[in-house]
Design a protein that fits this description.
heterodimer; A: 529 residues; alpha/beta; Beta-Lactamase; Helix Hairpins; Heat Shock Protein 90; 4 domains; seven-stranded mixed β-sheet; five-stranded antiparallel β-sheet; 18 helices; 17 strands; elongated; B: 204 residues; alpha+beta; Chemotaxis protein chec; globular
Chain lengths: 529, 204
Amino acid sequence: MSDITSLFQSLSQCLDLGIIGVDQNKRIIIYNKWVAERSAITESNALGKELSEIFPDINATRLLTTIDDALKHGLPAIVSNVFNRTPLPLYNNAKKTERINQNINIIPIKNENVQYCIIQINDISASVDREKALEQQVRERKEIEQELRITLRKLEDASKIKGEFLASMSHEIRTPINGIIGVTRLLKDTSPSSQQSEFLDIIDNSVQLLLTVINDILDFSKLEAGKLSLHEVEFDLEKTLNDVIALVKPSLECKNLKISNFIDNKLELSYLGDDNRIKQVILNLISNAIKFTDNGEIKVASQLIKANEHSAIIKISISDTGIGIDTQTQELLFDKFTQADSSTTRKYGGTGLGLAISKNIIELMHGSIGVESTPGQGSTFWINVELKRNNKKPVKATVIKKDKAAKQSFSGKVLLVEDVVVNQLIAKSFLKNIGFNVVIANNGQEALDMCADQEFKLIFMDCQMPVMDGFDATRHIREMESDQRTPIIALTALAMKDDAQLCFDAGMDDYITKPYELSDLITCIEKWV
Amino acid sequence: MDKIPQMDELELDLLNEIFNVGVGNAAASLSQMVKQEIKLSVPEIDFLTSDQLIKVLGQDKLLCSVSQKVSGPLVAQSILLFPDVDSLEIVRKMLGNQISDAGIAELQNEAMTEIGNIVLNACIGSLSEAFSQTFIIDLPEFERAIPAILLESRQLSSDSFILFIRIELSLSESKITGYLAFLIGGASFSILQKSLNKTLSSLI
């Protein structure tokens, strides 16, 4: 045995792993150089000693149990670093500061019926360090992800608060604007002097501009919140374009610009889609063309790109002979708050939201928008939209001309439910002008009381009022009604969320958004009287 | 192997008891090692063919296995099996929650090898003690595969069958089912039976 032991001892010296051999009494019979160097115990000091004598801290550890099992039952074992970091006091440096990470194999060997045990030690410190570093990286990445999640949530909250703020601001701003517009119109009917007329026109135009800005901001916040939805109605493309051109006529005349409207004769005119949004985009593009053109002509052209049984792709382009836009700026043009350059903002005014809104609306319709331009020679803005073909009977355009509308005459008693005195004044005079006898309720509760003992042809209902709001009042009126249903039309400055739906849910039949024009009022009344 | 040799009730009782002792020791060693209470239970011993075992384990189920070959008076392949997912759960529970999923997967091999080694050693040690015999046992080997592949590489002889034990491991509110399988040939089975009877006669 001693021959074999000494052979094994010599062999083990050249291994790059630790070898300790013990006999049945756990006395050390092999102790290689690798272990000697790392334990700072020389071979001659170790040999013949009991294992726990030179390594006292292995008592009552799994390592010692496995050695016992190996000697008693011949059971081999793995003492891995996962569960046992550093079973033996072995060090990689002379200072003995840090124990090396070990993977230990316990190998029982039987010779001439005597059981021996070989303890084989691997130094895995390098791979443990590598894993620790990786684990640290993973932890750090997780922490960063967590921080990002928190930041994202904060941003979402902030965006929500912004949306709510805009909604309430819009209501607060629209209400006084409604007052200014209404009273200006009323003043115009009081035979003012020509100078006063001119001043009133300035007020009117300024307020209209202010309203456009507010509507732009509102639309944009709706688009950002994904709350802008499209409606599908039958509409006539030619009428839509003509309506827009009629709207810009005063500004065209002001700058002495010509406008032409060319419609491809292959285009049919009746479609299903959100004509109001298409109108908004075209109006924005034409208004821009007018804004940046000092002389020459604006050309509006519509052509059919492709059509099938159900839909048609239509290209509408608006060309001007204005200042033009360089290629670099063209790329930024559809971003929010961008105008061709910051100085243009001063010179030409505007929020810089128009094109961003237009782009979003057109994309919502699965269409595209673009521009071609040469500085100094003008620009052509175009949209491509796919519209559903209206296979039913084409709509008959119902045009209400303002001067005719003014003469429109109705009769009967209507109830106006409105808490703001200025608004009462405006609505009352509009309604009186077209022939109605107007009764006023200052809030929902008053309206309820009046409905209990009077009959009305129509009820105009403000939505937000003290004491009882328009929604509750409508619900109560509907409960009170037996067989005759009085049409209730909401007059609302609410412009966010699904306001229309709120009105319908409460039992109202129609709605008009403040500020409104007399023609809006008449169009609506005609539906219900 | 179409016919599985039978054991009588006494033989089975003793074998069950030997494994109970072994698994009990294993639970104690594991608990001590990870410093939390780990329980292991052995409900019943069964004898199965390879095909039956594959069916019990689930043909396509990925398993992780630790095996140690036993030789000496009898020859057997001892295997501890856990569904792969459950083995990760065991490692996670034993090592604590501060290690990432990737880290746990990285340690699965080493950790399961040691756990398997402890359980298998305890059972083999219990057999060796009961029969007063010493076996020659190889170091544990770890492998992840589906049952058919795991068994194929460990088949000992054409007439081998499986001494099958379902074990339940409970640790910190989880109960995980694993399996102990001893692949054993006809000749070794006879030796096992003889050893059981020898022990039984010394007890009576």
